[in-house]
Amino acid sequence: MKKVNVNGIELAYTRHGKGNPLVLLHGFPLDHQIWDEIVPLLENRFDLILPDLRGFGDSTTVDTPYTMDDFASDIAGLLDQLGIQKTAIAGHSMGGYVALAFARLSPDRVTGLGLVASQTLADPPDRKEGRYKSAAEVAEKGINGVVDTMTSKFTSDPILQKFARGNMEKQQPSAYIGALKAMAERQDTTPLLASMNYPVVVIHGDADVLIPVERGREVKSAVPHAHLVELKGVGHLPMLEAKEETARALSMLG
After folding, report:
1. Among the listed residues 122, 93, 97, 114, the one whose alpha carbon sits nearest the alpha carbon of residue 226
2. What are the structural domain ranges in the chain?
């Protein structure tokens, strides 16, 4: 992987293909490898940029608290160093929160937005409290408890569960803690939707138990020109559970 220095961290990324830029942001607590299966389906159409968000994969992080805006600022810094002014950006789950923060902070840089198993709502109080409890658990006992809890919630496919577990187990406890707290404090980005005059693609499995498909439908209702793809029987990993359909939908961002 290549790395750039931005905002006091080393941000790792891979780059594939040619065409209009498309940034693909992974979810929590994973890294860029969740996109590997669809890279061959998109690289003839896009200049694909797959970063590891701060703390995850081969990217470093900081000890002080950070926010979704900081994640988004990292992406802006990466694009600056790559000489890319405008890009489509798509995010899976937490990566969607980062993409939305990027769209809010840098609206003139966005040519299209993709939300994959994600949402615009902030955490309700009970969910926020749960994230802080999870962060405290990781700090005290390590990541195993979170990994055990999340593995079966990602997907019902045992082969993909094994992949997800292996990917989660590679990540550092500091990444879990920082991201959990950042997600807990994220703002509701629903008001942003009305200003989106570029292509918006929403991809959601109807068997997603982590973020219900209703969240995707709400985005479609708020953005009438958005393209909503509901994937029957698919859980929280559309890019792995339904890679062809997911790649086809993301192609609309080009």
Report:
1. 114
2. 2-121+188-253
pTM score above 0.85 = yes
Query: How many Å apart are CA 48 and CA 213, to the nearest integer?
Result: 26
Q: For 9-49, how does the pLDDT look when each residue is reduced to its tens digit (9 = 90+)?
A: 999 999 999 999 999 999 999 999 999 999 999 999 999 99
| Rounded Cα distance, 211 and 217, in Å | 12
Which three-class secondary structure state does DSSP give residue 43?
coil
CATH topology of domain 2-121+188-253: Rossmann fold (3.40.50)
Listing DSSP states for 52-76 in one string gives PPTTSTT----SS---HHHHHHHHH
Q: Which two tokens stand for residue 179?
A: 């991201």
What whole-number distance in Å separates Cα of residue 155 and Cα of residue 240? 10
d(CA 254, CA 250): 8
